[in-house]
Write a structure and sequence with these properties.
binds adenosine-5'-diphosphate; binds magnesium ion; Rossmann fold
């Protein structure tokens, strides 16, 4: 049976879809059979980050409503033979989700895939409870800003209360990813440091992704940054993938001096 990894946050716009896409690609490239499921009903955008938006015919709601069979809605990635994608519906009506149907779908996917990456809506939005229903593991994404961390903290409580696993008395494994860290701002005292965030959330940290304009350019091209050589954010994503696979990988040194030296080194080697 596969592992369901739900990618979630308190606030919107903190990088859930970006992180879902990159981790799905990374796990698939490491040889695992992966499906990325877009559960952000109405706000579909994982397709764009994966560069698969033109291939969508059916979506996750069509599968649940039995308008098509699951394999008809699954889209095969262009580059990775191990990676599949299940698009969100663009319907405005988020109440269309039904817990029983969601759980049935997730169970079906677990039989067929090693990893099911669920890109979920933010915790404050409807549809969130459905996205965490089948989670074996939750990755809580926060930017190093007070409002983002505070909202993330609330979401942790909801995961503990509402997921199927938690209701069965088991624990959903939870990890924090800090996204869009700007080391220059942390150094000046204008942004929360990694330690501040983990102190508030009291959960293990599984990754820190720096703010990197290459994330935005690769999203526009539909090519997740993890596939780009020589990107600091791509390296951060690769490290998270390794940690998800149980490897002990050192955290990147993101201090401004270190990044400057890395750029200089690249020029001269
Ligand atoms: N590490 C990063 N560096 C720079 N931009 C980022 C980074 N992560 C995400 N972004 C950008 O932030 C915006 C929101 O990201 P997205 O993944 O759509 O968030 P969410 O799914 O949580 O709403 C997008 O424009 C995305 O390209
Ligand atoms: Mg999103």
């Amino acid at each position: 049976m596969g592992t369901v990894i739900t990618v979630t946050s308190g606030k919107g716009g903190v990088g859930k879809s970006t992180i879902s896409a990159n981790l799905a690609v990374g796990l698939a490239d490491a040889g695992h059979r992966v499906i990325a499921v877009d559960f952000d009903i109405g706000l579909r955008n994982l397709d764009m980050i994966l560069g698969l938006e033109n291939r969508i015919v059916y979506d996750v709601i069509d599968v649940m409503e039995e308008k098509c069979r699951l394999p008809q809605a699954m889209i095969h990635d262009k580059f990775s033979k191990n990676l599949f994608f299940l698009p969100a519906s663009q319907t405005k009506d988020k109440t269309i989700l039904d817990k029983g149907k969601v759980f049935k779908l997730i169970t079906q996917l677990k039989e067929d895939f090693d990893y099911i990456i669920v890109d979920s809506p933010a915790g404050i939005e409807s549809g969130f409870e459905h996205a965490i229903l089948g989670a074996d593991m939750a990755l809580i994404i926060s930017t190093p800003e007070v409002s983002s961390v505070r909202d993330a903290d609330r979401v942790i409580g909801i995961i503990d209360a509402k997921s199927h696993k938690a209701q069965a008395g088991e624990e959903v494994e939870k990890h924090v990813i800090i996204n869009r860290l700007k080391p220059e701002l942390v150094e000046k005292g204008d942004m929360l440091a990694i330690q501040d965030v983990t102190n508030i959330l009291a959960l293990p940290l599984i990754g820190v992704v720096p703010d990197d304009e290459r994330v935005i350019s690769s999203t526009n091209l539909g090519e997740p940054v993890i596939r780009k050589k020589d990107t600091i954010s791509g390296r951060a994503f690769k490290n998270i993938v390794q940690r998800l696979l149980g490897k002990d990988v050192e955290f990147l040194n993101l201090s401004p001096e270190n990044r400057f030296m890395a750029i200089i080194k690249r020029w001269f080697t």
